[in-house]
Amino acid sequence: MDVPEIVEEVIEVLLSGLKDTDTVVRWSAAKGIGRVTSRLTSGLSEEVLSSVLELFAPGEGDGSWHGGCLALAELARRGLLLPSSLPKVVPVVIKALHYDVRRGPHSVGSHVRDAAAYVCWAFGRAYHHTDMRNVLEQLSPHLLSVACYDREVNCRRAAAAAFQENVGRQGNYPHGIDIVNTADYFSLSSRTNSYIHVATCIAQYERYLHPFVDELLHSKISHWDRSLRELATEALAALVRYDAAYFADFVLEKLIPFTLSSDLCTRHGATLAAGELVLALHQCGYDLPNDKQKQVSGIVPAIEKARLYRGKGGEIMRAAVSRFIECISFSLVPLPEKVKRSLIDSLNENLRHPNSQIQTAAVKALKHFVQAYLVATDNKGAVSNNITLKYLQLLNDSNVAVRRGSAMALGVLPYEMLANQWKDVILKLCSSCAIEDNPEDRDAEARVNSVKGLVSVCETLAQERESSDIHSVEDNMSLFHLMKNEVMVSLFKALEDYSIDNRGDVGSWVREAAMEGLERCTYILCKRDSMSSTGKADILESMSKQPNNNVVEENQMCLFFDVNLATNLVGGISKQAVEKMDKLREVAAKVLQRILYHKEIFVPFIPYREKIEEIVPNETDLKWGVPTFSYPRFVQVLQFSCYSRPVLSGLVISIGGLQDSLRKASLSAFLEYLNVEQDVNEELKLCKLSMDILWILQQYKRCDRVIIPTLKCRQLRFFSAKGYSWIWRRILWLSVPVFWILWRLN
């Protein structure tokens, strides 16, 4: 029977519609192809199939591939795709499952991969298991590769659904149920979980390891998305456990030439992957042959020789090289002396870089590199001393990036490199924590790094002194005396860093680092006190209950952590807990909470400890960043004379600030505190409050940041606030000397 000419014209229009730019048109055309083909003879159906397969030519666009997949799915779903045609259809579907075409800064093809998974799903519903046995063996590795490693979550889920449909309908498939339970809808929702956990679990089964490695090696480590490349290198390393020899002989051999590729994405991914593989092989207990060790040790010098740090992508390569050095340092790959010098020079260059991510990567690498290659072979300590001295000198460099990197580097140096110059290191870092005298040299990030580096150095020294008996008593005492008299003082001064620039309150970064540093140094001193004294428990208990106990004060001289440090610590942190930045209030409250309730180290001599513990309970998930929650609690600290001044100096900034919601919350909490306590020692309390205000104005004279909010407090309609007017009239009357001081200052 001849087909009417109009039918051929309709089919031609439908085939053209499969390449349309609009998805709705392609979908409708695919439906039409299926309906029309169902009315044709088998011979004509094969002709339609051949026309559909022509849409998958390499020169066709993504729309054509997408429309072709939809048409194949419709033909299969309706039973129009004969089993005899599957051998020529399956290779096309496999290509569509991996379709990803780079276009500018991104790629296209997710809709094609999703449609290809739909084709596989339709196969499972349309054919008998005897017809699909060989087809499923071909498709399953590719479906699971997409399910685990695709960038888009909808493609991962679509491929997993197609695999599940085939396993469920085609009967007994090896490990099918286990894989379906592992790669489910929810486990694939996270890309990281899919790459690291789901794929690693599936790779243990036969026939999936090598396809997974090929997918990562040829598609993912050279992907245009940097985060995906980095994740792919971790995923590749996670598979090493199943066949270490294969990765050492084949995969690493392929990766090393790619580190010098002209394509940035390829060389970046290959450099990261090579480092991760070397580390994974070391962790598996596999020793690289000498020729492979030589090739690995030459990767960084080859990159530098090719000048791949310059031009576009240089920053990305610097970070990748730092991570590579970190990995080979972990793995203890033997390096010639010339290569060692080259690598330390590379790390020093990266430490000078203004990009913080590059500096962080370099610091991580430096920490393990010096321990693996310099300390172990430096018998006389000459190299170690030179490196430490170099970083000390760079703390005075005019380049802020150099100062940042040097401070971070000093913080990760091992004890062996600090042993001969530890006093100079601590004192230099203490001075670097302070705000620079020259306004042009001021840099908040450098001070943050100095604070963090200072605390890390103290921890390194203290840990070594505790675990070793070779140091004299005087040497040990001098370290902890220096921590008490210099380090803690510098950190308390860093709590007063309120510097600002065009980015805002950059001093808040320093204050946050200082609070965390004070916490860590407090633990060091308290731990030392607990180790060096006996019978102190009764004293500590009496001190926490009676902060002015004379017996305790006589014992302060022999302690590294005394009542003055405890008072300044709680007062300084409480001040940050009542200031205007939500994040800082939350950090301060959590730091104070950890200090009060530390499970291993008891922090003694905290005045009014029991009352403070009532204000800051040992509970999780408290919303310290919410003003209406935190202010009513911390404003109660004002009742303790040893903490009232620092807390009030922070509170007036919130009360007199510009943010309306914060001002209302802080003022309401303060007035509520006054109202609750107004009948108890009223005159004494008001006099104390006025003297605290006077102290604030004296302490922060010529400091507009504090003076203006303090004076603004009287403009917030205190006099019209019902029930509080008499309080503020008396406070202001008692604070008359304040205005005399201000007049003298002017």
Structure description:
This protein is mainly α and 746 residues long. Among the domains are: 226-377; 533-745, no CATH class. 70% of the residues lie in helices and 1% in strands. The protein has 38 helices and 2 strands. The protein has helices at residues 5-17, 23-37, 42-53, 62-77, 86-97, 110-126, 129-149, 153-170, 176-182, 191-202, 209-220, 226-238, 244-258, 264-283, 290-297, 299-305, 314-331, 337-351, 356-375, 382-394, 400-412, 415-418, 422-432, 444-467, 473-494, 507-532, 537-545, 550-554, 563-576, 582-596, 609-615, 627-634, 641-655, 660-676, 682-699, 704-712, 725-734, 736-745; strands spanning 101-103, 106-108. It has a two-stranded antiparallel sheet with strand order 1-2. Helix 19 crosses helix 21 and helix 21 runs parallel beside helix 24 (444-467). The longest helix is centred in the last third of the chain and has 26 residues, at 507-532. The protein is elongated. The termini are far apart. Mean pLDDT is 89; it is low at 534-540 and 717-724. Keywords: Chaperone, Membrane, Transmembrane, Transmembrane helix. The chain crosses the membrane at residues 726-743. Residues 568-713 form the Tubulin-folding cofactor D C-terminal domain. GO terms for molecular function: beta-tubulin binding; GTPase activator activity.
